[in-house]
Specification:
two-stranded antiparallel ribbon; globular; 153 residues; mainly alpha; 2 strands
Amino acid sequence: MKLSLRGEYALRALLVLAENEGQGLVRVQAISAEQNIPKRYLEQILNDLRAGGFVKSRRGVAGGYRLGRRADQITLAAVVRHVEGSLAPVSCLSENFYQKCSCPDEMRCAVRSVMKEIRLAIVQIAESITLAEMVQRSRELRNQPMNAYDFSI
């Protein structure tokens, strides 16, 4: 799995919305500024996430975005699949986006066999992590002291 910039921005935008869950709508400008995402690109991503049911929006002066369902019901895997298409590191392993690979015998390919194990690990982790857990992790990371120097003599 390779997460594109679009996928990363989608996750970061959803993280902001999850952090503000229950506090009303969040404006695009606020997400853009906080996460350093170009506003026009963010609007496209949020529209895609809205189409996928991950966010809801309201237009107008008092408009903005909020999560489409609770943060503990949105998995990392669901978002990545929606934005990127597949979690598989090679297309011959994808369940929904399968493409035949170039190896002569797909079932006896050692590379495919290893990639299958990697895909399984990715799926297990991505299916188990929710936006709510990412919010908790984000808060824990913000509370860690910043070490300016990390060296030994």
